[in-house]
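Fold it.
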Amino acid sequence: MALKERQTVADIGEFGLIERFAARLGAPPEGETWAGDDSAVLRAPGSTLLYTTDLLIEAIDFDMGYASGADIGWKALAVNVSDIAAMGGRPHHAVVGLGLTADCPLDTADRILDGLLSAASRWGVQLVGGDISSASALVLYVALIGVAEAEPIRRSGARPGDAICVTGVLGGAAGGLALLRAGAAVEEAARRRLVARQLRPEARLEEGRRLAALGATAMIDVSDGLIGDLVHLLDASELGCSVVPEAVPVDPDLVPLREVLDPLEAALTGGEDFELLFTLAEDTVQRARESLAELGTPVTRIGATQEGSRRLLGDGPLDAAGEGGWDHLRTR
């Protein structure tokens, strides 16, 4: 007896897949409309809304050779939550755009939704609908609405003499990608941690809200690399800086990978760590450390803002060091 062929998304069609997904989203509360209309209808829980979007494309942002459907779904929502975290806000509702090839296995589509729902549960987000289309490669687009419970923390608010700080440790996502692509001799627990940092990133949501409450003057999430994102923040604030490379918190799991990648270089330019890079008054740094320590998240001061030049102490101009950061239209 021949084995039954694996069911694909073409077998049930666009509207069948929408119905399949909508059934798993649950019923909206009174007065709201989710999937099934021209747009979602939502009750705004606050007066200042935050909107963010991100797009993941197969062979550019992920590789199906090492990323499962659930990994892709998780990451697509996590990177958007990270953007809301960098504004000091709270995420609420998301819509999803999904582009699939006709021969995409149905269970892959199901696993993508598994990952989206898992991440939504993790950060208190409600998926409320979206759109599905055919594509030449798998594409996943998320648009997320959040609420700023206080004044949003923008990139443009840094002041001369502010401390430049970062949460967590850096370079782990780049290390995980190197392991997925090439492999290396590394202890299994360290390998799992590094791979998780690449495939299942954590958004620093509560950390962002606490930093906002402590008076962070500017903030950005580390998606394109520490130096590249610091340049974005400094450009918006029209400031220079002095940064000490040796102060940058390098993920300790990168030490065994020295033959594959330079740990400090990975921390400076690797990207996708989704830690928070922020500025605040020097006399508030210790309070920030103590507050985030309650969440198990370290805070490291890596430099200070200033008028004029931007320097990596001992290494020259900051902007030149950041040329290795990620740029979607130039980095391949």
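The chain has a mean pLDDT of 90.
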